[in-house]
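Please fill in the sequence for the structure shown.

STRUCTURE ENCODING:
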């Protein structure tokens, strides 16, 4: 999912997009068109908690942030004129480990056909970074128990990791990737939500008390794992520099886990492997998930109650957000939360200390773009539930139940708390408007149901867009219609779009 911010300051306004990877990539053209028409700059803010796919193998061997979503956005921003670089950084190695390893060696000896379209100096620079990564891999190899698996590895991920290890800076690695890719950083930037050379994992607490550890396990079917039950949990606060502050003991805020599945044979096997994970780390945080399926939407056993960050041992921690990301939000005039995974893409950004406050005090417009369909994380959710989850992550106000339990289609209220909501209607409206002012949605049976009356009573203005069915049968936004909807909400300096009303979208009540 994504968030966008706009600013009216001269010489151009500013847009910030908070998002995950795959889903929001489909809207990059919409955002590019938006900044061109409005003379804006745009910054994407992306979480680093993904521990699935080929990123999981890099994390297992080298540690470091989850870079898959950062890489996918950078690749998506490479202009068509740099098709050679796009094809190289977007390429995945063979699905067979042995064939993939052999293919990687062709990148080191410059015999790979992927280099042919590139200028020689550029190819040599990329080769030098991949060679440095190869050296680091060899230094960590302990055959046969610990070897790097090149299976289906993204070359873009390999390059980012090599550049980070060479420079010692994640931000420098992103900068080098963008420069080589020809991304115009004067107009478009990619910012990690957290700047760190360390891995940051998340946990999800469900309404029934289950705790699921690791983003991959939350997003894709997996046996829940958690820290063993204890009356006291340790919270670790970390500074923006990555240095840990002294731990403080407190009663755990997360639901007490009553499921703790661990595979003894897996644990024993892992202890025979020497890698980047600390001794005693939870197995689900120190394993590769190269074959994890993103198409399996097996429902969670219970709705998600809360998302929080954890250290390798499963204890809650509160990392500091990227200062540049917070500054971008504060300087913005409008924020748009776009499509993607609500709890594993948006929430890991919004729950960071200071992000919610920046959203409240900075942007004038705060627009939520609903998904075209529901997923494993949001089964049964309505538009009202999405709004409540976003607001709950931003303000952490659990006394109003802003971030839990899907509605039962009873006038848009949570079935068990309808009376409570009605009793605090004024307070809810004031709170909601601090973080969400507009909602864009698709009107289709597979899309979340939108209760316009409830949202209007909270001061949230709804804009309905038409969609189209994708190859997977799920609804997608019509790009032109979504762009026009955003233009109507945010306004064009030349005034043209303010008065435009497309058949592709309809504004439906609410405060202005």
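FILLED IN BY: designer on duty
SEQUENCE:
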């Amino acid at each position: 999912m994504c968030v966008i911010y706009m600013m009216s300051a001269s010489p151009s306004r500013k847009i910030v997009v908070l998002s995950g990877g795959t889903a929001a990539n489909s809207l990059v053209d919409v955002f590019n068109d938006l900044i061109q028409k409005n003379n804006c700059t745009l910054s994407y803010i992306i979480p680093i908690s993904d521990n699935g796919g080929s990123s999981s193998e890099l994390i297992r061997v080298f540690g470091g942030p989850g870079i898959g979503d950062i890489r996918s956005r950078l690749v998506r921003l490479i202009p068509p004129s740099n098709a050679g670089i796009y094809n190289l950084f977007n390429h995945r190695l063979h699905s067979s480990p042995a064939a993939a390893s052999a293919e990687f060696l062709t990148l080191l000896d410059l015999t790979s056909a992927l280099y042919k379209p590139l200028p020689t100096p550029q190819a040599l620079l990329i080769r030098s970074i991949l060679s440095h990564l190869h050296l680091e891999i060899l230094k960590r190899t302990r055959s046969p128990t610990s070897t790097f698996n090149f299976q289906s590895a993204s070359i873009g991920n390999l390059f980012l990791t090599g550049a980070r290890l060479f420079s010692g800076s994640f931000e420098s690695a992103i900068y080098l990737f963008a420069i080589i890719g020809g991304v115009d950083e004067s107009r478009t930037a990619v910012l990690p939500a957290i700047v760190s050379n360390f891995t940051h994992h998340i946990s999800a607490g469900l309404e029934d008390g289950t705790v699921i550890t690791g983003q991959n396990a939350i997003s894709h079917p997996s046996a829940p794992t958690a820290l063993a039950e204890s009356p006291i949990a340790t919270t670790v606060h970390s500074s923006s520099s990555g240095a840990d502050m002294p731990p403080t003991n407190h009663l755990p805020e997360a639901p007490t886990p009553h499921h703790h599945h661990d595979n003894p044979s897996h644990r024993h096997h892992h202890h025979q492997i020497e890698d980047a994970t600390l001794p005693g780390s939870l197995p689900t945080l120190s394993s590769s998930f190269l074959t994890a399926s993103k198409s399996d939407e097996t429902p969670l056993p219970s709705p998600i109650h809360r998302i929080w960050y954890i250290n390798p041992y499963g204890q809650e921690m509160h990392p500091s957000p990227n200062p540049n990301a917070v500054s971008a939000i504060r300087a913005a005039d409008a924020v748009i939360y776009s499509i993607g995974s609500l709890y594993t893409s948006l929430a890991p950004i919004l729950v960071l200390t200071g992000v919610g406050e920046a959203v409240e005090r900075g942007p004038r417009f705060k627009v939520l773009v609903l998904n075209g369909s529901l997923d494993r994380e949001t089964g049964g959710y309505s538009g009202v539930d999405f709004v409540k989850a976003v607001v709950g992550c931003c303000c952490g106000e659990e006394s109003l139940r802003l971030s839990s339990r899907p509605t039962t289609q009873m006038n848009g209220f949570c079935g068990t708390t309808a009376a409570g909501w009605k009793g605090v209607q004024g307070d809810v409206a004031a709170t909601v408007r601090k973080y969400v002012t507009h909602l864009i949605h698709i009107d289709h049976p597979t899309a979340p149901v939108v209760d316009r009356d409830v949202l209007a009573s909270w001061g949230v203005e709804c804009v309905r867009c038409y969609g189209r069915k994708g190859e997977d049968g799920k609804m997608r936004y019509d790009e032109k219609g979504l762009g026009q909807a955003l233009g109507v909400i945010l306004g064009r300096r030349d005034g043209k779009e303010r008065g435009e009303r497309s058949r592709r979208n309809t504004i439906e009540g609410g405060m202005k």
